[in-house]
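Human: If only I could read backbone structure tokens as easily as an amino acid sequence. Underneath my words sits a plain record pairing an amino acid chain with its backbone structure tokens. Take your time, and here it is.
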Amino acid sequence: MNNLQNLDLSNNRFENLPTKSLIYANKLKSLNFTQNDIQEVVNFHINFHAEGGILDLSNNNLYMFIIAPREAEGLIELILRSNKITDPSQIKLKYHRALLKLDMSKNFITGLNEKSLQLPVTLTNLDLSSNNIETINPSSFYCVQHLHTLRLSHNNLKNVNHGVFRGLNSLVNLDLSYNQISSLDSAVLLDLKYLKFLSLRYNHMNSLDSKAWLNHKTDLIVYIDGNNLSCDWLGNVLADYNNGFSKMHPAVINSPMEENTLNGIPCIPGPKNLYRGSKNEGDDHNMITDERLLLTSQKILEAVREQTSYLRKYIWRSVLLEADKLNDSKANVA
């Protein structure tokens, strides 16, 4: 048992984890307890390999999992897919700083608030897809500020409000596909400064205001297939990207063959669903024009700063060379 690395105890009738039987198996890399009848895990005394281990508890009846300090050392990935989790606050893992990946997909979570996630700040991947999530309150993910990937697909989200993603400054991948988000303002995602991939696929979305992405820090690919966005909106967004005004690039995974498309991206023709269409359409147009002028001015200023910095370095180097020559001349005379 001391050298055991992979143990598969799936498809049995375990109601509890046999932690006492495995207390000396401290080199485990993979522990599989899928397809059992485990309802709760408390006092987890199994340790894993120094390189890290995976615990898979998918397809049980689990609703509670608590790891106390100094328990489950070496556990870096926990899979709780397809269980009976309704209250995510009963998954208490915040003291387990080694954990990097957590899968709670295919459960029965209906909402999230600032106290729902009792998870370690070091977590990098969180999967909450295929639940019944309808509402997410502001700061719900504030405790997991180092997340790189967050999956919220296949839920019942209709709105994304300001502050929902507060604190997620390191997030790179966000999956909001297969929800019911008919309208989205990019301003609600301003906290995600380094977001690179956003999936909005199959939300039947008819409005996506992308103005806030004009100042996004990194290139951002937004997957929009399966929506109802207008060709006017798509043409303007593609023009902003191609002209360097925006770093947001719309894309699709599967390009349809028989639909109206621009650059292989489907869109709805006609005057409807204009991304600038509103009661204050003229004001919106003027604001976007002002933002473009501001971006152009910023780029010019950055170029001027670079040239100025180069000139300063060149002049300073010349001054130093002249000083060295003068010192050499004085030394020769002396």
The chain has two domains: 1-66, 85-271. DSSP finds two helices and 20 strands in the chain. The longest strand covers residues 75-79. The helical segments are 231-242, 281-333.
